[in-house]
Amino acid sequence: MTREHLLAQLAQLSDEDLEVALKAGRASEKARQRDRYFLHHFFAEQRVEDGDGQAAITLPVTDLILNPAKMVHGGVTAFLCDNAMGMASYMEKRRPGVTLEMSVRYHKPGRGRHLVARGEVVAAGALLNSARCEVRDDSGALVATATGTFYHRQAR
Question: Which residue spans adopt a coiled-coil conformation according to this UniProt entry (predicted)?
Fold first, then answer.
């Protein structure tokens, strides 16, 4: 598509949809600059604390992440768990890793102004870490719990 064609399509969007498009463009730009990745910026998640084998991430609840029942989409909650556990695993190993497996249990609908995920490494090996996570809403109610296994290549 040409720039002119894209601009013509953007001109047809509502102000609200233009804001979403701008947010997506800025998230894409930051990801290209290697400043984390697209979804981190698009969903506006923030690390609120981290340490050896622990991490906490907050995610604002916006219309963009709600399902038709007006609660945070389960996939977004899983995304938050994966990021909190992955960051905790990174903080323990101090080298990048990937998720090998993850299990999420949903306890109540995600609602409110924000969700906070706290990830923690529960077992660390040479290449693998096992982690757990709790997600709570802004009232402190438990929304979801998760466990996961993370692989980290040997340091070179």
Answer: none
